[in-house]
Every structure is written in C-alpha cells, then in structure tokens.
Design brief:
Elements: E1 13-14, E2 24-25, H1 26-36, E3 40-44, H2 45-58, E4 66-71, H3 78-86, E5 90-93, H4 96-104, E6 112-115, H5 121-129, E7 134-137, H6 140-153, E8 157-162, E9 173-174, H7 194-203, E10 207-213, E11 217-218, H8 224-244, E12 251-253, H9 269-274, H10 277-286, E13 292-297, H11 299-302, E14 306-318, E15 321-326, H12 335-338, E16 345-348, E17 357-361, E18 387-391, E19 411-415, E20 421-425, H13 430-436
Parallel strand pairs: 3-19, 4-5, 4-13, 5-6, 6-7, 7-8, 8-10, 10-12, 12-13, 15-17
Antiparallel strand pairs: 1-2, 3-14, 9-11, 14-15, 14-18, 16-18, 19-20
Helix pairs in contact: 5-6, 8-10
Length: 444
C-alpha cells in the first residue's frame, strides 16, 4: 500500500486556466455555496485595488497630473464604490442616481465628473446642488440647460466639452463614429459642434471652461486610435485659439477602453500607455501648459475581481457531445447572450479530459442560454453536484441581473483585504421577488 498522502482536490486553489485574477480555494468556494446557495458572485477587494494601481503606474511617464476615474455604470455596488473611494480616484457618472450611490458610499462631489446623456435642466440643478463642479456637455441644448441650472443654483461650473473624434476603432463596443450618439463633431457649421459650444462657454458668465472629453470604445487593443484622436484634438484646439483667442485647457479625459484579457493575451495598461504618453507630453507643450490627464475605466478596474460560482445540476450526452446544465443562466451573465461574451470557465474540482465536446447550458428555457467559453476554459470532469466557476465577471454582469423566469437575485460576496468574506448584496428569495413584481398589490 502506498504511503503517498492523498490530497482533497477541493482544497486546491482555483486558477488552473492560466487566467489572471484572484485565487480562491476550492474548499472556500464549496463552503460559501453551502452557506449562501448557488449561484453567487464573489468579489476580491485586493484585486480592485490592484487594478487602480496598474492604471496609475501605466501613466507615470506623463509629465502632468494624472487621475484614474471609475465608470460607475460597470458595477455600482456600494462596497465596490467605497473601495475605489478609499483609493482616492475620481468617478465618471451619467445619472443622478449614480451620484447618490457615490455620495452615500464615501465618494465626494469634488471627485465626480458628470457626463450626462440626457442633459436636462432638472438633472443639472440636482447635480450642482449636491456639490458637483465638473460637468461634461455634449449638445447645444445641454449647455443651455446647464447655464440655466448654474444661474438658479448660484454655482460656478467647470465645463468640459465631449467631442467625437470620429476615428476608426476596432473595439467590442465603439463610441467614436460619424454622427454617433456620443459627443460633438469638432466642426460642422451647426450649433451642435464642439466649436460652437466652446465659443458659447467662453462667453457665458458663471461657466468656467475646463477641457475636453472623449470616449472611443470598449476593449480597445490598438492604441493608434488614441493617437489619432489626440492629433485631431490638438489641431482643433490650435485652430479654435486662432479664432477665439487664448483659452486654457486644464483637463483632458481620454475615456476608457483598456482591454480585459478574458482568458487571452491583450495589451496591458502599461503597453497601451507607452504608445501615447510621449504624444500627450508633446500635446501639453503645444498647448502652452500642463493639463490634468484623466483615464476612465469601468470594465478594466472591476472585471477580473469577480467570479460567478454555480453548480452542475444535470448532464446529457449525445454521442460525441455532452451538455452540462448549471443552475445559472444569462439572467446572471447577460453579456453571454447579448454579445456572445466568452468568459474563462472551469469545473471545480476538474478531472480527466473527455473526447466528448462539452456544451455549457444555463437553466433558462431559451435557446440563447448556452454559454460561450474562452479557449482557456477547463470543463473536464464536469459532474452533477460539482461547482462551475466563471471568471472575470465583475464588469456589467452584476448590474445587469434580471429576474427572467422569476429568478431571484443571487448573493454578492466580497473577500476583504483582511481576509474574511462578507455579504455586500443580500440574496433575494422568491417571496421578495413576488412582492417586488407587484404580488403584494394583488386584490384580496
């Protein structure tokens, strides 16, 4: 009989896919599943903080001041916001409801850059009354509404102009295109051009011109589009100064787009930044003064911090294919259906590779509820009762949870930097969902 010590596979750390991100022991994942049920989300606080550091260190060669801004739309959980507030970064917001989340979670109005899509007067009055100073406008009407709101509240506003550089971008989601939804064309002859809006800002008492903002897209892997956008912005500023006189540019926000690996190699923030920092320094010199550089991120800062843990509940074989059914669906990972998003996935504990092709199916009665998987996913050893872990799900998945098929929202947990795991969003039961959907309003 062998004296070799047997090892319980459930005590081994999860990260056999070669994917970056937090490591959780199989034992802990099973323990949490027993306590909170499946599916559940598990966030790692240390990874959130690490991602901030990665972005900050990427731009250390920029000669001016650099700030990271978190796009709250990616994950507005109060504990996530509080973590970022503790890092002293800025917040990019597009709704007054997001502002209330930030202020109640430890963020300050001074850290907010407000970029509205609707740009209504009522919205701006609320934002200014709550102490926000930096506001980004992207339309003529929006500027008129902001001017009215500033007059009513008596607040001075630091106004930025959101421009649309109209550069070609290879991205999962594009934010820069001709006549697109976001931003203003540099010129164009209409009142809804960056030049026209800039001219009005400079001529309006109570408004202080702050700088420019653009956002090119999501999951950008080629920094050339940033270089082209900055080149066009520089040409616009120099041309506008010839016509409008000298004006100072205090802030330039280059938006987000830093890519997340999702199980494959992509450029790091340092690699992306190294291609444009020199150009940013030259831009500052040509403008005659240092500006604060802001880089926004929602996806990059949060994605790798979080895993979704679910359980295999059934298996069905068809010759060379095997369907593995889990107790989660695209109601918990909506990107899997909308964008056919590929997350790294692994069975815990794993097993020997089978010649059968494994198809990972969700619990919803919908043919779209089949999860695409990354090339680094490891589904060998799947069996009823085992756990399946989706990695890199911290961006957008939690905030897009929906109750399709009367599915209650799962627990969201956080492993703190001190070690203990705590609940940061309570799981919902069927009774609570029934009441939320109007069940408590039924007539007797």
């Amino acid at each position: 009989m062998s004296n070799k010590k047997l090892v319980d596979p459930r005590t081994q750390p999860v990260s056999r896919t070669g994917v970056a991100g937090p490591k959780f022991s199989d034992e802990d994942l099973y323990s949490l599943a027993e306590r909170y049920g499946t599916p559940y989300f598990l966030v790692d606080e240390a990874t959130l903080r690490k991602k901030v550091s990665e972005v900050e260190s990427a731009f250390t060669d920029f000669k001016g001041k650099f700030r990271v801004a978190y796009s709250v739309k990616a994950n507005f959980n109060p504990s996530v916001i509080k973590t970022f507030a503790g890092e002293g970064i800025m917040f990019d917001l597009t709704a007054t409801s997001e502002l209330h989340f930030v202020l109640r979670s430890g963020g300050s109005p001074a850290s907010v850059m407000y970029t509205s899509i609707t740009e209504t007067e009522k919205e701006y009055e609320e934002v200014l009354a709550l102490g926000v100073k930096k506001v980004v406008v992207a339309s003529h009407n929006g500027l008129l509404n902001l001017t009215e709101a500033a007059g009513k509240t008596g607040r001075e506003v630091q106004v930025m102009v959101r421009v649309n550089p109209e550069v070609h971008v290879h991205a999962e989601l594009r934010g820069s295109m001709g006549h697109g939804k976001f931003g203003l064309q540099f010129n164009g002859g209409s009142e809804d051009s960056a030049f026209s809006v800039l001219r009005r800002i400079l001529a309006t008492p109570g408004l202080k011109f702050e700088g420019f903002h653009f956002h090119l897209g999501s999951q950008i892997e080629d920094p050339a589009c940033y270089a082209e956008a900055l080149e066009r912005l520089e040409a616009f500023v120099l041309g506008a100064r010839r016509q409008l006189g000298q004006f100072e540019v205090r802030t330039i926000d280059i938006g987000g787009g830093l890519p997340v690996s999702y199980g494959r190699k992509v450029p790091s923030p340092k690699e992306m930044a190294s291609k444009i920092v020199g150009q940013l320094n030259s831009l500052a010199e040509s403008m005659g003064g240092r500006f604060t550089l802001v880089a926004e991120s929602g996806r990059f800062l949060t994605a790798e911090s979080t895993v979704l843990v679910c359980r295999v509940v059934n298996i069905k074989s068809f010759g060379d294919a095997k369907y593995v059914y889990v107790d989660a669906g695209y109601n918990t990972l909506l990107d899997s259906a909308l964008l056919r998003h590929e997350y790294p996935v692994e069975v815990v504990p794993g097993g020997r590779v089978s010649p059968q092709k494994t198809v990972l199916a969700g619990r919803l009665c919908d043919p779209l509820d089949v999860f695409p998987t990354s090339t680094r996913s490891r589904l060998a050893g799947a069996g009823v009762g085992k756990l399946v872990v989706f990695r890199d799900v911290g961006a957008y998945s939690i905030v897009m949870n929906m109750p399709f098929h009367s599915q209650p929202r799962p627990y969201v947990l956080m492993r703190t930097t001190q070690g203990p795991v705590r609940v940061i969003r309570k799981g919902q039961d069927v009774d609570a969902l029934f009441a939320e959907e109007g069940g408590d309003l039924l007539a007797d």
